[in-house]
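Each lists chain and fold; for instance:
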Amino acid sequence: MFFVERQGKRLGEWPASAFMGDTSEFEVLIGDLEGDGSRELVVANFDGASCGLGVQYWTISIFSDPEFQTFHAPLTFVVEDYHTFGSFVSEASGVDILQTRWLYSEDPKRQRSTGMYLVGQWWKYKSGGLVPVQNRQLIGRRLLESFESEMGKTIGDALEPYIWLSSPKADVFKVDPLIQSKKNSVIGGEI
């Protein structure tokens, strides 16, 4: 658990994951995510990593009141492959949040068979929630040898995964592969 305390008094708590019983890695950030002059507190908690590809799983918690005048549970969401400035990207209108996940998906260009993609979706933090960024598309990179090599050279870069998905090799997804449906066949009948 994470705890918020002031002068020995517990103000609130929220769940955290630990890897193999150790204290997991976490990062605390403070900044104006909305671009409205008030700051938010962000806690990024490393939950674990996969064997093989080495996907890192992180839970991000955002508090609208970093002073904790009144404790409210944070907005919490999960990302796969996180880094400070590669997940929270400064823009003139505040900060865009890049939420990433690895998915097995059809090729958005329909030129290859299905494959593994790192997919990124852009969000804005607004009024305690996340809303999609209107002028940014759902993007992804197919896991190919060239992409694996690029990831190996940039692991630990403060701009990952943003640098991976801002490459000209990134594909635009018209439909979110997580929710796309594929109709294999239609069978008539009565229920």
Summary: The two ends are 47 Å apart (CA to CA). The mean pLDDT is 84. Helices lie at 84-87, 145-154, 162-165.
